[in-house]
Amino acid sequence: MDYTLLFIVLFLLAFGLLMVYSTSYYEANLEIGDSAYYLKKQLFATILGLVAMIFVANVPYHFWERFAVIGYIVSVVLILLIIPFGHEANGAKRWLYIGPISLQPAEVSKLCMILFLASMICTMGKQIRGRKGFWMVDGDFLDTETFMAGGEKERSGGEPMEMLEDKLRTYVS
Asked: What is the mean pLDDT of residues 73-81?
């Protein structure tokens, strides 16, 4: 186990929680009457994320390959659901509300695209370095810039996928 990485992750989580409390305690106390309201909310999400991290880290990575195509399809469906059911915030329609959970499909799509591209690259092996590999990663089938943005590249937050695509282009060529 990489204890240095684990320490860095835990430090960043603790620092992030401190920053959430530091920036929100006054407003939470005025509006809700509980100065730690946003901290508690973020702490719950942090604990949930840590449990998910431990679970995912202990599952062999080959297990996740079978979910690559399903994840890609789910990502496309979630992004398409924004059109009729999305909620607008700050001038951009990018949130879905499923019961008490608010979900930003672009975030789910980032994870699913990483899984899908990793699976595809492993399947292609050394063929990824050829022309076919380049067009499979860069072609319209995986146009991550448009896909992640849901047609709104400037406001979607799909920048990490654009960086991944640029890295793959550099690797392939």
From this structure: 90
